[in-house]
Design a protein that fits this description.
Elements (H helix, E strand, L loop, with lengths): L1 H22 L8 E4 L11 E6 L5 E10 L9 E7 L3 H9 L8 E2 L5 E3 L2 E4 L5 E9 L9 E7 L6 E2 L3 H4 E9 L4 E4 L4 E4 L15 E8 L2 E5 L9 H6 L1 E6 L5 E5 L2 H4 L2 E2 L5 E7 L6 E16 L7 E16 L5 H4 L3
Parallel strand pairs: 1-10, 2-11, 5-9
Antiparallel strand pairs: 1-3, 3-8, 4-7, 4-9, 6-8, 9-11, 12-14, 12-21, 13-21, 14-15, 15-16, 16-17, 18-20, 19-20, 20-21
Amino acid sequence: MKHIYTFLAILTAAILTTACNDEWKDEQYQQYVSFKSPIPSGGEGVTNIYVRYKPDGKVTYQLPVIISGSTQNQQEVDVHIALSDTLETLNWERFSTRTDLYYQELESDKYDFSKTVHIPAGSDVGLLDINFSLNGLDMANKWVLPLTVADDESYKRHPRKNYATALLRVIPFNDYSGSYSTSTMEVYIRNANGSTDNKPMVTNNRTAYVVDNNTIFFYAGLMSEDLSRDERELYKIYIRFNEDKSLSMWADNEEKIGFKLYGTPAYSVTETMDATRPYLKHRYVSFTIEYDFKDVTSRNQEVLYKVKGTMLLERNLNTQIPDEDQQIKW
């Protein structure tokens, strides 16, 4: 009798093992089509994409289109791509009546893309080529290209909107754009007699946006990026990085905001490899500037400010990754 029980136990285990093995040969979920465009935790519902600014303004970004599931895709799939109409909903949910803070849909003459992405049998990923023309793109606006996977009988569009839709915030970059550390840059209120108070104000970071291959702009002093677009435009300070390591600085509204630059600023660029991670390169851009400007929008009377200090940009680059936009640790 003992041998019979042992035999039955072995037979049952074999049947269960065979059943489990066969089960995993079948698709466990659904082979949905979606974008690979993750939205960062705590973000504003968009996916930042960084594209290298080229002198002619033209650059191509490849957006992955994926087929999910527990088994590999075994058929030829042509995925249809279209513009999405969800940006208006996102703006309302994020900013309500503050329309001046809304994301703007990227102008139609600034991009083109193929309306179909082919994913061959035996592959789960296809690449959508998006061709950008970024000359003259004013980064005072927050530009978004909204895309969606169009419905089609030949495949299953992912039922979750944030998977089947990609809201791509387009951020061009050059060698000098990005988030600068400004913890040593002090902003003083200038008194009527020209003196300054003894209690400077400081902000830890200031974002510099691309104008062209060698030029950036940022907002003066402590001017917030939460200002309305028209107000932000007033306080744009431009910096051009010259080949002789000097800086050219100016503002569009120099007279109105009382912009005045002191001295002839210069910049430095240094690169070092990480002491413990030999594949990681640190690139630093730094410069010290001093200028005056007036706040002409936020109070009943104009306030003159003096700004003085150092701005430092650090970029960490993984040299093992060939694609520049991917190797930079944003």
